[in-house]
Amino acid sequence: MKSLVIQASHALAAAGQGDLVWGHASVRDPEGRGIWIKTPGWGLEEVRDDRVQLVSFDADVLDGGGSPHKECHIHLQIMRARPDVQCVVHTHAQAAVAFAALDAPLLPISHEGALFGGDDVPRFRLTGALVSDPSLGRALAGVLGQAPAALMPKHGLVAAGRSVEEAVMHAVLLDRACRIQLMAMSAGPIAVYSDTGEALAKRRQCWPESQLRAGADYLSRLAVQDYRPFIQD
User: Following DSSP, what letter does each residue of 55-117 receive, concatenated?
Assistant: First the structure.
């Protein structure tokens, strides 16, 4: 499980979603004990074997050093709510934060935007501060529902997946969709985008499991080139 946390963290860093030492990816413990997640105080690109901890569903550190993340409840409560989810990502991706501040619907103007099949991206509005207790985590999980990702206005994004590759790419695609729409809106009103039928078709064509894996594998290759000193064989 540590290797999967490292893989997710480095891939997110390679995609430009790092924020100094903040943001994290978690992987469900196969024995049902909780989640594996990076130890607080390290950047995504710095994660290695001895910087990963096992956190129980009661938010206690069972393996590894340090205290649990203040926002471990994001991961724990989404894992509780969605048994299919194996990986959860929370980052402060800049385009996602900027786009959420406009309170505009996310439109399928690109392949990335079609990830939501023509629907708007869910938004967690209860707080823009830290998701630092189980009740806030449950509320966030409820907003996310079965969607691949959600915006957290004034804060960042959350993404989930049945694999590390899915969760990482859901986070990356949401941030890219936000960035592309910000570029379009800066030039004028958006006039051209997919209708619901085309957006649903594009989601099936562009984002099956194989394509999500291909994108995540590419990011992992970039990460290995850039951050090889942090990976232990």
Answer: EETTS-EEESSSPPPTTHHHHHHHHHH-TT--EEEEE--HHHHHHHHHTPPPP--STGGGGGT
Check: CB of residue 232 under 8 Å from CB of residue 46: no
Nearest C-alpha neighbor of 107 from the set 17, 183, 16, 167: 183
Q: Tokens 């232990």 correspond to what residue?
A: 232
CB 43 within 8 A of CB 49: no
93 neighbors 22 (Cβ within 8 angstroms): no
Question: Is the four-CA dihedral 41, 46, 51, 53 of positive or negative sign?
Answer: positive
Q: In whole angstroms, what separates CA 172 from the centre of its chain? A: 7
Question: Contacts by 228-231 with C-beta closer than 8 Å and gap 24+?
Answer: 230/6, 230/10, 230/45, 230/46, 230/47, 230/48, 231/6, 231/10, 231/48
Measured on CA atoms in the order 117, 119, 125, 126, is the torsion positive or negative? negative
3-state secondary structure (DSSP) of residue 215? helix
181-217 tens-digit pLDDT: 999 999 999 999 999 999 999 999 999 999 999 999 9
pTM above 0.90, yes or no: yes
Is residue 65 scored above 90 in pLDDT? no
- Nearest-10 crossing angle of helices 164-187, 2-14: 20
CB atoms within 10 A of CB 231: 15
